[in-house]
Amino acid sequence: MRLLIVAVILAACGGKPPIPKRLVVEGDVGSWKFRRFQGPLLDIEVWVDGNKGEAYSASYITASSEKVGHIADKDLVNVTVTKYERQDGVVRETVRLVRRLAAEKGYQVDEKKLKGVRALRITGPSETWVMWPSGNYVVKVGGQGRENVPDSMVASYGDRYPSQLPGGSLEGPLPPGPDKPKVEDKEPYDSKNPKPDLDKYDPNNVKIPEREVDVLPPADEKIDPKKAPKKKKK
């Protein structure tokens, strides 16, 4: 009841509803009834290298399914919100994931604006989702066996997590973000054929051992046995 009163006051004042303490709305959203909470989940979908994230999810069902006690796929919507330590790379990796789903997994993906929220729509053989980045968060709404995503659910979470997805993100280069540095593979050490470590090479510390060299006369000059250099005995 308190949550509903706060939402009504914020709507009347034109303010943005706050981000829930556990990231997802643990209450009814429009006609959708809150059913279950899960979190924190460390098995996140959008992986950002060097930027740790944890996810929280909520499930919602229709009022009619709650009355009859039977929940079909069309009666269930899942929402997952992932929070990262920083914003770095969140937009970039969200777009990269969706592109990979299209290229490798055969999903149909497109960019769509739902209730003012710019999102990436992902459609599979028996599932539909929308996903968008927002600062250091990623929001995913949808479910298995669904052909669409409820506008009211997208609008509710879009108010709390405004989309920062750039237009045309599925085309052209990826959005800017930190790239993972390339690590060159080093050859294993071979004692019979050692090679210098060029990363630690210092020419000032390299000492070349001196050795004696016998100076021989030109080939057309006769050698005087008495003046010929004597070889050292080993």
Written account of the structure:
The N and C termini lie far apart (101 Å). This protein has 234 residues and is an alpha+beta fold. The chain has 4 helices and 7 strands. The N terminus is likely disordered. The radius of gyration is 33 Å and the shape is elongated.
CATH topology category name? Protein Transport Mog1p, Chain A
Structural class: alpha+beta
The quaternary organization reads as single chain
Evaluate the radius of gyration: 33 Å
Low-confidence stretches: 1-12
H/I helix tally: 4
What topology, given as strand order, has the largest sheet?
1-2-3-7-6-5-4
The beta-strand count equals: 7
CATH superfamily: TM1622-like
Furnish the topology, listing elements before pairings:
Elements: H1 2-13, E1 32-41, E2 53-62, H2 63-68, E3 76-84, H3 90-104, E4 108-114, E5 117-124, E6 127-134, E7 137-144, H4 151-160
Would you kindly provide a brief summary of this structure?
This protein is α+β, with helices and mostly antiparallel strands and 234 residues long. It has 4 helices and 7 strands.
Provide tags for this entry.
234 residues, alpha+beta, Protein Transport Mog1p, Chain A, 18% helix, elongated
